[in-house]
Amino acid sequence: MTRSATTSIDLNADLGEGFGHWRLTDDEQLLSVVTSANVACGFHAGDPAIMRRVCALAAERGVRIGAQVSYRDLAGFGRRSMDVPSDELAAEVAYQIGALEVFARAAGSPVSYVKPHGALYNRVVHDEEQAAAVVEGVLLAGTGLPVLGLPGSRLLAAAERAGLPVVTEAFADRAYTPGATLVPRGRDGAVVSDPDAVVARAVSMALDGTVVSESGERVAVGAGSLCLHGDTPGAVDLARRVRAALEAAGVSVAAFA
Predict the structure, then answer these.
(1) What pLDDT digit, counting tens, does each position of 3-14 carry?
(2) What domain count does the chain have?
(3) CB neighbour list of residue 100: distance below 8 Å, 6 or more residues apart
(4) pTM for the whole thing?
């Protein structure tokens, strides 16, 4: 699903990003705003109790459940790139989807899509081998699920070749390069922290399918889904502002078809 501009857009957030007594995201409040929930599946964050709770809350509120798959990297929150053999990565992706599916189905709302997290997300923008492994993992899970990713990425190309539906995604709270990829998190300004700027970027992405890159150039980022990070300080208030601004601009906020 690739669109340069749209009057309807999905709003997603990363949820369930805790472990044991540690909590990072305000899942309950964010689930009152977003239309799709990228649920951590235990490799970068999340544990069985958290996954079960978030799936139950999402199903109760009519929010679509997505499997946010990652490198096996709890210590690094999945933000460290790893050279995982293709067969191993495919198996780990399938494992994560299957784990979340148990809790989603128990809640009455099965897993509806797959989205890589962190370093894996960025790696499969350019890495053909790892992108193919992620797609193999989705196929191995036997679900034929849509894959959420960056427009023009190797991941979405591989998913399309495999016959999987694809959904393009944009990030209102992340800086973009002139090549329309995300600025690496280690670089200054990679995360857009000004709430007014995030809101303005979200509206531009939805209405025009564009955003101003770090170089000042406007680049195309047409997307069917808009992501806000749940671990951003003030994430709930920001998500509410973004949704209100989108709706005020005449954009319908709804889960992707």
Answers:
(1) 434 489 999 999
(2) 1
(3) 39, 41, 51, 55, 65, 67, 111
(4) 0.92
